[in-house]
Amino acid sequence: MADETALVRFDDVGMRYDGGAEVLHGVSFSLAPGSYHFLTGPSGAGKSTLLRLLYLAQRPTAGQISLFGRDVRELGRADRARMRQRMGVVFQDFRLLPHLSVFDNVALPLRILKAPEAEIRRDVGELLAWVGLGEHEAASPATLSGGQQQRLAIARAVVVRPRLLLADEPTGNLDAEMGLKLMHLFEELNKLGTTIVIATHDTTLLARFRHPRLVLTEGRLKTMPPAPPPRGPVVQRTAPVAPRAEDTRGEGRS
Ligand SMILES: Nc1ncnc2c1ncn2[C@@H]1O[C@H](COP(=O)(O)OP(=O)(O)OP(=O)(O)O)[C@@H](O)[C@H]1O
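^ thats the input. predicted complex w/ adenosine-5'-triphosphate below
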């Protein structure tokens, strides 16, 4: 039965790339506001495809997707752009803007939302320092290492405290300590209300941050409970995520 309170709903969604085989088949699930799910499954199972559908970067070839209570088929170009402003996304290839500095890459989503420059200076500076890129504010993204680019992509995705955060293997290029630190940042965001979907193969993260799993196998999706807990003590850290009133930014709700 349709769940009208869901932030995201997929009903019998199928996806086939041009001329290819069907990559997703009959995928149905919903995400409650404030929920946190891991998206798992073997390489090629369709995880990135599902995230691209969620981000409205691709249209399904079958079924129906609702986002923020709207059927995405009814959305015009401007509506889609506005919806993307409520989402933070970390793609596997980062999609950084090469002509902008590190600082300006992170500042861009805030500038689109017309945040005051003083606030942008403060929030972007604080976040870049926290992810270890404080010394690189003026650099071009192309001069950064893979791990630094990943941290930059994450900073850009979280800086507006999005309603929905989508991340594809967000810790794949990071050392274990930085990976954990950023996972704690996602936990903090989630406590402040951000709905999260993280695609990962990392079984250590799955066991440590116990969230329900959306498991894709050959394009079919099953919802599973959290992975079993790890053995041994878990070290908790906190992350500097300031409460942010998204509605002060004038993006409007649908
Ligand atoms: N742009 C595209 N055009 C054609 N086929 C594609 C395209 N993108 C993905 N595919 C195919 O869709 C299937 C699912 O790919 P997808 O990248 O979604 O899987 P994945 O689970 O994210 O894999 P990985 O864990 O390796 O990133 C694969 O068979 C892939 O070859």
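The chain is about 30% helix and 20% strand.
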